[in-house]
Amino acid sequence: MRILISLILSFVVTTTALAAAPCIAHKAASPRLMLLEQAMESDRFIAYNPSQLKVIDGMITKASKESIRADLVKLRPYFNGIITYSARDGNEYVADVAAELGYKAVIVGLWTPADPEEIHNAIAMAKAHPRLVVGMSLGNELILGKRSTWQQLGQYVTLMRSRIPDVPLTVTEPFAQFLDSDSAEVRDSLDFLLVNVHPIFESWFATAGPDNWADFAVKVTGKLADKFCGPIIIKETGVPSGPADKGFTPDKQAAFWRAMQAHMQPSKSLTYAWFAAFDAPWRVADFNPMGTHQPEEAYWGLFTDTGTPKPVVDVIPKLKN
User: Fold this and answer.
1) Which of 3.50.50.60, 3.20.20.80, 3.90.1860.10, 3.30.465.10 is the CATH number of 15-42+50-60+136-315?
2) 52: which of 10, 82, 111, 119 is 20 to 30 A away, CA to CA?
């Protein structure tokens, strides 16, 4: 979700070509990996951080189970898949609540994959909900934020795979990190990719339009598919609804997601999550791995922090299940 290396836009790929590209089999599909692929094709994911969860000056306000239920009730008409960022501070309730509300798939995130509490909670969720928890992500932008190394990430993957060998594992990084040759060994060991693709951080963003922004996500995932022969989910993309003085508006946010739906048809090999569930005003002062002030961090939500839907919600078809 940070400033990324610009990609040469002459590279062209369509989602049809991506699905049909020649590819050596990544690995034998486990039952849970098949569940993940089915969810990618048929369900609709959203990247979710509980609206009650805040981290201000290192002080954590945890989310209650009741607040998470209220969040997921609000999201359920539009989404039946959840991707979390953490497995503690309230996030440990997500799988239980999601099961109660009829969600179809959860990908559990660990913010700190070396944290024993998160490891315990994540494994407990996976074991309690073997058909709902379809994958697990060990960290979010740890390489970009210099919070870890590829060698350490590889060790986390190996350790977690020894504990829950049937659960598909991944890590989350911006696309440039996955394209870096340093990532190759760990990247190729993963069961699927969760990748962040943000056109707003590209130099051409302000002079382009919604179709260009969405097409960028398609081209980037095509480039990744040349390197990685497994399922790919765009975990983060989009346009924030503010601040206005930086050129971001609710209408631009809605226009991006309208274009994204036209440019990328979800499949078993490629899909995207909507980003993100709720605004997070506290994130203006949150940890920033690039060391820059990014006020747009407060405005990524499809809903405000109090749960009011933004115009973008009108472009999301309601689910039938």
Assistant:
1) 3.20.20.80
2) 119
